[in-house]
């Protein structure tokens, strides 16, 4: 089975306690190294992972089936190279959001520690500090729903930064039914829970920790590099510039069914780090229904997700109308008026800076997964958002589809190797396209002109497992119509990844 | 051109340049200077599992165990500066949480402390020759900020976990994080280190702990008011009765007094801070599983300078686990 969250085996044998202590020391020392990522939910470790908790358990020092605490960590380094590509106009007429056609390199490095603590029966607390350093392509401009590296954060810096990614409480209330084992994993204390239960989460986390889980694409740090496969590309879930939010969720599990609802905080300004805590005025609401099934003896799941944001953003038609009524309300003049803006110098284009106010954005999506063997699974996601307002927190796609397959290497006797092939496509709404065609920019795209087309990506990767908890990945991405502009690209992207778990 | 004429012109040029330079210097002297900013926090919480808020009870023991701790607090006016005629609370309100994680085995302990500022705010203004900028940290604008992290190691070199006198040593490396411009008073922006001699003991109902050490602090921004003046001496002591509540829980009530002074102006009022907290805690005493410790403390600056606040309130929650014996499948038993 691809993900194996509930089946851990204790296979690390014979490690003396001294090794353990040395390992812990090394991890603590490494935790101090200052390093920057888009919010990524961690996955369950490999069954044979070399990690602290497995070692402790093997030495008889920790009950890995009924935990009062746990601690895990991960390190991921991703590099990307973009060779030169064809583009007739770049940053046309003073716009600033084009993907630069010259050769570029990009990287992210993340180092994360996951701490979990049981507080009382069913009560758990989690704390996750993370270090990240990054250099995006073209300052993270010019790509819509298919940013080549899912770890990239807005406003990230090459200088590593330590920050708190998650601090939250979780309360599980049993409601009966069969007993289900939850294995020890990052942000999951090992325990046994009811198949019918209510799970309440409150604090600071990413909504992807709770919603839109997919056991085929599972942890992006193990699978596709491209952001189009991390979640719905057009799900504009409110979050700060790093991808995290404050708020609360409730999950009701009832045998094969699950119902999730949640309300989370948006950023104060679109795509910025400061958080708007007026959660009764400005918020993102999500609801998801999941049904798990067995088809031809293999598990699968269907999830339907709907969201409704009420956040301070600009409507494209408002921006166009404001500009047409008064050409002085152009993109270049935003700076003059000291409005929050994206820095465009285009004095002939409309801009969203003049029209930001509380607006509603809605979308619906479907997420399918199906395993065909223990080692091969396929996935499909599709979402339709209204596309009337600018991107507030995720990316500028208004509609998206992604699908693909992921396989482990048992067939060629490399059971911990992982390979996958994915295809993603995203679109923008007509009014969004009209705004970009007039030279407008949003948080990520806007070449100063537009020959509208869907943005597409194919992502293929192979991860070689080394030393049970270390993976080296080679990745190729082909991106066409970057920034939804048919005149630009295609773009070849070569990627590499080193990922370690402990 | 005759040489005498060239010499005269040269002398005039030198005089003009000198006058210009003196004038610039005078203008510069009139301009208020901007201090660098630094880590105002003087509440260096003890290692997770350390018992007291600042002191350490040196009770590490048993097989591999450890502790997780969450401490939260508020300090009022931790940084006030004065030139004799005017006063300014540069940092007037400081709220923080601190997360700590420790692993311990036998008499050794390794730990990580991460400080999360929630609020740091105050007042900007000019004091003497210095223009001070108000810090501005709030959860909304800085939703995920972490300031300096501390990585440390402690060892008990004399006595066992329940001896009347225990002697130990500890070292910490403070890794800079936070606003790199230092204007938020959450970091010095440099690596720092601490080396301390620790002592503690239990004599009947009395339990006590203390430390003396050196804080290696590269930042010396004197004579900027309130600023660090390089490396410092650390000192502190705590004591109180240990009262049994029931078979598996005790309460400890007692004061903790701690402070620091810069070596370069040893114990002078402007570069020494002394603070006292009255603390109380309730903790489990069993060795057969994780134990809970709940702590509260309140107090203030006896000598409210150099980072010691007018008053401070702190709370702490700690889970610690010093399992003393295990069988090979993880079952534990007390000795």
Overall description:
The complex is a heterodimer of chains A (502) and B (335). Chain A is mainly beta and 502 residues long. Chain A has one domain: Porin (Beta Barrel), CATH 2.40.160.180. Chain A contains five helices and 18 strands. Chain A has helices at 17-31, 52-58, 316-325, 333-337, 430-437; strands at residues 69-82, 104-120, 123-135, 161-174, 179-182, 191-194, 196-205, 245-254, 257-264, 283-295, 298-314, 356-371, 376-385, 399-409, 414-427, 455-466, 470-480, 491-501. In chain A, helix 3 packs parallel to helix 5. Chain B has one domain: monomeric porin ompg (Porin, Beta Barrel), CATH 2.40.160.40. Chain B has one helix at residues 3-30; strands spanning 65-82, 87-105, 108-121, 125-127, 130-132, 136-137, 149-158, 166-175, 192-203, 206-216, 232-246, 249-262, 272-284, 291-303, 311-321, 325-326, 332-333. Chain B has a twelve-stranded antiparallel β-barrel. The chains are: A mainly beta (502), B mainly beta (335). The A-B interface holds A 17, 20-21, 24-25, 28-29, 31-32, 34, 56-57, 59-64, 68-69, 71, 115, 117-118, 125, 127, 129, 159, 161-165, 167, 204, 240, 242, 244, 246, 268, 273-277 and B 63-64, 66, 68, 70, 99, 101, 103, 105, 110-112, 114, 116, 139-146, 149, 151, 173, 175-177, 180, 289-290, 319, 321, 323, 326-330.
Radius of gyration of chain B: 25 Å
Q: What coarse outline of chain B follows from CA principal-axis ratios?
A: elongated
How many helical stretches of chain B? 1
Task: Order the strands across the largest sheet of chain B as they lie in space.
Answer: 1-2-3-7-8-9-10-11-12-13-14-15
The CATH topology of chain A is Porin
Oligomer: heterodimer
Range of strand content of chain B? over 45%
- Helix content, binned percent of chain B: under 10%
Shape of chain A: globular
Number of structural domains of chain B: 1
Strand segment tally of chain A? 18
Examine the secondary-structure arrangement and name the CATH architecture of chain B: Beta Barrel
CATH superfamily of chain B: monomeric porin ompg
Give me the count of strands of chain B: 17
Average pLDDT figure of chain B: 84
The helix-strand sequence of chain B is HEEEEEEEEEEEEEEEEE
User: Could you report the average pLDDT of chain A, rounded to the nearest whole number?
Assistant: 89
Q: What's the N-to-C terminus distance of chain A? A: 21 Å
Compute the number of structural domains of chain A. 1
Content-based structural category of chain B: mainly beta
What is the N-to-C order of secondary-structure elements of chain A (H for helix, E for strand)? HHEEEEEEEEEEEHHEEEEHEEE
């Amino acid at each position: 089975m691809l993900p194996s969250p509930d089946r851990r085996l204790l296979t690390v044998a014979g490690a003396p306690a001294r090794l353990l202590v040395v390992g812990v020391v090394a991890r603590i020392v490494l935790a101090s190294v200052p390093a920057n990522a888009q919010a990524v939910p961690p996955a369950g470790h490999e069954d044979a992972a070399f990690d602290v908790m497995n070692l402790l358990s093997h030495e008889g020092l920790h009950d890995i089936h009924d935990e009062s605490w746990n601690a895990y960590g991960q390190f991921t380094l991703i590099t990307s190279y973009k060779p030169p590509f064809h583009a007739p106009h770049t940053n046309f007429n003073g716009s600033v959001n084009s993907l630069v056609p010259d050769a570029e390199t990009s990287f992210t490095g993340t180092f994360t520690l996951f701490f979990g603590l049981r507080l009382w029966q069913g009560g758990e607390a989690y704390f996750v500090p993370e270090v990240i350093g990054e250099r995006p392509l073209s300052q993270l401009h010019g790509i819509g729903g298919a940013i080549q590296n899912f770890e990239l954060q807005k406003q990230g810096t090459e200088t590593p930064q330590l920050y708190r990614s998650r601090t939250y409480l979780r309360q599980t209330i049993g409601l009966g039914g069969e007993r289900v084992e939850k294995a020890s994993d990052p942000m999951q204390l090992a325990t046994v829970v009811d198949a019918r239960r209510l799970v309440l989460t409150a604090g600071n986390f990413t909504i992807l920790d709770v919603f839109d889980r997919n056991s085929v694409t599972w942890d992006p740090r193990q699978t596709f590099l491209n952001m189009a496969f991390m979640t719905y590309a057009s799900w504009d879930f409110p979050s700060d510039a790093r991808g995290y939010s404050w708020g609360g969720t409730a999950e009701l599990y009832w045998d094969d069914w699950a119902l999730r609802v949640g309300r989370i905080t948006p950023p104060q300004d679109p795509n910025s780090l400061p958080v708007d805590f007026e959660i009764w005025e400005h918020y993102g609401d999500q609801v998801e229904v999941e049904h798990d099934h067995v088809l031809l003896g293999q598990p699968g799941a269907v999830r339907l997700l709907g969201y409704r944001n009420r956040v301070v953003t600009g409507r494209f038609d408002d921006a166009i109308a404001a500009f047409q009524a008064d050409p002085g309300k152009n993109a270049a003049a935003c700076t003059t008026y000291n409005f929050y803006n994206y820095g465009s110098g285009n004095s002939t284009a409309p801009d969203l800076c003049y029209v930001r106010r509380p607006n509603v954005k809605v979308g619906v999506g479907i997420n399918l997964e199906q395993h065909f063997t223990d080692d091969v699974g396929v996935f499909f996601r599709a979402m339709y958002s209204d596309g009337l307002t600018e991107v507030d927190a995720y990316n500028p796609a208004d509609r998206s589809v992604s699908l693909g397959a992921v396989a482990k290497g048992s067939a060629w006797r490399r059971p911990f190797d992982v390979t996958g092939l994915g295809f993603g496509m995203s679109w923008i709404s007509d009014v969004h396209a009209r705004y970009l065609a007039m030279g407008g920019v949003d948080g990520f795209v806007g070449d100063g002109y537009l020959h509208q087309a869907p943005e597409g990506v194919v992502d293929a990767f192979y991860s070689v497992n080394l030393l049970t908890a270390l993976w080296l990945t080679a990745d190729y991405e082909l991106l066409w119509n970057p920034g939804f502009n048919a005149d630009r690209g295609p773009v070849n992207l070569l990627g590499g990844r080193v990922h370690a778990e402990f | 051109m005759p040489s005498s004429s060239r010499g005269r012109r040269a002398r005039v040029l030198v005089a003009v340049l000198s006058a210009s330079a003196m004038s610039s210097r005078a203008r510069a002297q009139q301009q208020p200077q901007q201090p660098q900013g630094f880590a105002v926090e003087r509440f260096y919480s003890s290692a997770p599992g350390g018992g007291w808020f600042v002191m350490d009870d040196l009770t590490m023991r048993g097989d591999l165990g450890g502790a997780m701790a969450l401490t939260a607090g508020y300090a009022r006016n931790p940084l006030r500066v004065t030139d004799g005629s005017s006063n300014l609370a540069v940092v007037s309100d400081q709220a923080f949480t601190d997360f700590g994680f420790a692993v311990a085995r036998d008499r050794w302990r390794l730990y990580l402390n991460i400080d999360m500022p929630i609020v740091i705010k105050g007042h900007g203004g000019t004091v003497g020759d210095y223009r001070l900028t108000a810090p501005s940290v709030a959860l909304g604008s800085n939703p995920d900020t972490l300031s300096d992290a501390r990585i440390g190691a402690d060892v008990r070199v004399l006595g066992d976990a329940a001896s009347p006198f225990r002697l130990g040593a500890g070292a910490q490396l403070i890794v800079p994080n936070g606003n790199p411009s230092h204007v938020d008073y959450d970091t010095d922006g440099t690596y720092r280190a601490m080396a301390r001699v620790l002592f503690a003991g239990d004599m009947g109902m009395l339990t006590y702990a203390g430390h003396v050490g050196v804080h290696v602090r590269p930042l010396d921004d004197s004579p900027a008011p309130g600023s660090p003046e390089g490396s410092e001496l650390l000192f502190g002591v705590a004591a109180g009765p240990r009262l049994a509540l029931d078979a598996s829980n005790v309460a400890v009530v007692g004061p903790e007094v701690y402070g620091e002074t810069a070596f370069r102006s040893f114990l002078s009022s402007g570069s020494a801070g002394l603070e006292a907290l009255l603390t109380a805690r309730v903790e489990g005493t069993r060795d057969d599983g994780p134990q809970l410790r709940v702590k509260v403390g309140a107090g203030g600056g006896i000598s409210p300078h150099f980072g010691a606040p007018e008053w401070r309130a702190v709370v702490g929650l700690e889970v610690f686990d010093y399992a003393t014996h295990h069988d090979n499948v993880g079952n534990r038993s007390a000795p």
